[in-house]
Amino acid sequence: MRVRIVTGDITRQDTDAIVNAANSTLLGGGGVDGAIHRAAGRELLAHCRKLRETTLRDGLPVGKAVATPAGRLPNDWVIHTVGPNWHQGQREPRLLASCFRESLDAAAVVGARSIAFPAISAGIYGWDPAEVARIAAETVSADNPTWADIDEVRFVLFNEELTSVFEEAFGIPRG
Ligand code: AR6
């Protein structure tokens, strides 16, 4: 599995799957979530509503992930995950590690061979980006046979500063 770290917009990636830093309602929000729903159109919202009416009546718990088709986006799948909210006292690293792990598991289940992640919880949910990067690196680097068919894991960071933080955590020299 190859890790790439890039600066950019998560809605403009050519990966099979992109990850949405959603909230438990799955019905949209600000930040990455807003950008993804805007780019994907109403079809994505319809898939999310369907989940809320069926398997996820109480919403998606923190640390869990679920895949839906990606609507108008160029990707096949959106994997929705709910990061821990620092401001609400959700400060355990295992919760964030679970988001990365469960998203990769969900990607493997639908057969996605490439996946793009944003910096989950590093925005509105208030986590220190360096801690997010450290947990991402630790989790993704685990030798997990479930992820054997995933060729590329891409981290898409919104600005250069955040990109440097991730490069450092992954031990990737500035390119
Ligand atoms: N592409 C890549 N990264 C982005 C983009 C984009 N288009 N837009 C923002 N970022 P956030 P969270 C960066 O707040 O902290 C929503 O309302 C952003 O700069 O999107 O997990 C949800 O509905 C930051 O580095 O996610 C939840 O209620 C990172 O993505 C809540 O926000 C994550 O910021 C989730 O908060």
Report what the structure shows.
The protein is α/β, with parallel strands linked by helices. The chain has one domain (2-170): Leucine Aminopeptidase, subunit E, domain 1 (3-Layer(aba) Sandwich), CATH 3.40.220.10. Helices cover 36% and strands 19% of the residues. The chain has five helices and six strands, in the order E-E-H-H-E-E-H-E-H-E-H. The chain has helices at 31-40, 42-53, 93-110, 129-140, 160-170, and strands at residues 2-7, 17-22, 65-69, 77-82, 114-117, 152-157. It has a six-stranded mixed sheet with strand order 1-6-5-2-4-3, sandwiched between helices. Strand 5 (114-117), helix 4 and strand 6 (152-157) form a beta-alpha-beta unit. The two termini are 19 Å apart. The relative contact order is 0.22. The model has no long low-confidence stretch (mean pLDDT 97). The structure holds ligand AR6. Ligand AR6 binds at residues 9-11, 21-23, 29-33, 35, 83, 118-125, 156, 158, 162.
Summary of the model, kept short:
The chain has 175 residues and is an alpha/beta fold. Helix content is 36%, strand content 19%.
Helix/strand layout:
Layout: E1 2-7, E2 17-22, H1 31-40, H2 42-53, E3 65-69, E4 77-82, H3 93-110, E5 114-117, H4 129-140, E6 152-157, H5 160-170
Parallel strand pairs: 1-6, 2-4, 2-5, 5-6
Antiparallel strand pairs: 3-4
The structure holds ligand AR6.
Order of helix and strand elements from N to C terminus: EEHHEEHEHEH
**Portion in helices:** 25-40%
Largest sheet: 6 strands, mixed
Kindly identify the CATH topology: Leucine Aminopeptidase, subunit E, domain 1
**How many structurally independent domains?**
1
Distance between the termini: 19 Å
Low-confidence stretches: none
User: How would you describe the oligomerization state of the chains in this entry?
Assistant: single chain
Mean pLDDT: 97
Class from secondary-structure proportions: alpha/beta
The largest beta-sheet arranges its strands as 1-6-5-2-4-3
Rough outline: globular
